[in-house]
Each structure stands twice: as C-alpha cells, then as structure tokens.
Amino acid sequence: MFLSTSTNTIDAKGRTSVPSAFRDTVGDDAAIFVWPSMRGEFLEGGGKALMESIQCEIFDRVSDGSLSPEQAEAQQVMLLGEARRLGYDKTGRFVLPEAFRDHAALTDAATFVGLGNRFQIWNPAAHENRKAEMRERVKNTPLVMGIVRPS
C-alpha cells in the first residue's frame, strides 16, 4: 500500500525521488505510473497493478452499462492516454515531465501523498491547504478505523 506523506525536492532538471516506502510498494518494477489529475491541479499515480485495475474497471463498467463506450473511451484517453511510466534509479530518482510539473504547479518540491492503492503528487503549499480542508471535512464524517473491510 502507498502510505504516508513525503515532500521531496525537485532539481533544475525536473528530477525528484519516489519516497522509499512507495518504492517498497512498487517492488521490483522500479517504475511508477503518473498522470495529470482531471479533478484538480495535482498528479495521480500508482503501480502497475493500479493501471491494470483501472483498465479492468472501465471494461466492467461498460459491460454492466454504467459507462457508455464513448464515456469509457474518454476515460481511457484521459487516464491511460495521459499516463506515463516513469522509471527510477536505485535511489528512487526520476524525471517528472515538464507538462506534469506545470499541471500541478511544481517548482522546487513535490509532496507525495499515499492513498492506499494509489498516490497523489501535490505542490506542497496546495497540499497544506487541501489538508486543512480535509481536516474540516472529516470532522463531520464517521471515521473508518479498520472496522469496515474494503471491497
């Protein structure tokens, strides 16, 4: 699982590092898959298993009628078509494409946020603002503390 939050520097060439805990989750593949979020100015990503599950979910949703073929194609274009496999070296260092840095307003640092089977990459200041918003939102939400098993 992708767990925890880590902020890493970005150098002048656009290089940053995958947090070591995330590298442990990815395992021997030595790569992450990242794409610009359609939901805001941040990046989303995960390992190979997430990409495969996204593709399967799209097919399943077309099969059960909850997505039309046109909607499925739009999601494939925006998720799978925009995603990049980003390989990293033994220290986790990789180049974050300029278009991705621009989308998320990443200049000198990137905050990696673990979300279980996936992660997000944020501008550190934007993430702090989001975290404050999430803290307020969770105050009015029943907490899930390991009582409910994920489906």
Describe the protein in words.
The structure is a single chain. The chain is an alpha+beta fold and 151 residues long. It has a single domain, classed as Transcriptional regulator MraZ domain (Chemotaxis protein chec, 3-Layer(aba) Sandwich). The strands form two sheets. The protein has a six-stranded antiparallel β-sheet. Helix 2 runs antiparallel to helix 3. It comes from Algimonas arctica. Keywords: Cytoplasm, DNA-binding, Repeat, Transcription, Transcription regulation. GO terms for molecular function: DNA-binding transcription factor activity; transcription cis-regulatory region binding. It holds the Pfam family MraZ.
Distance between the termini: 15 Å
Q: Which homologous superfamily in CATH is the superfamily?
A: Transcriptional regulator MraZ domain
What percentage of the residues does DSSP assign to strands (E)? 15-25%
By DSSP (H or I, 4+ residues per run), the number of helices equals 5
The tally of structural domains comes to: 1
Task: List SSEs in N-to-C order.
Answer: EEHEEHHEEHEEH
Mean pLDDT: 92
Quaternary state of this entry equals: single chain
Main attributes of the structure:
two-stranded antiparallel ribbon, 8 strands, Chemotaxis protein chec, globular, 151 residues, single chain, alpha+beta
Task: Compose a concise summary of this entry.
Residues 5-50, 83-126 form the SpoVT-AbrB domain. With 151 residues, the protein is of the alpha+beta class.
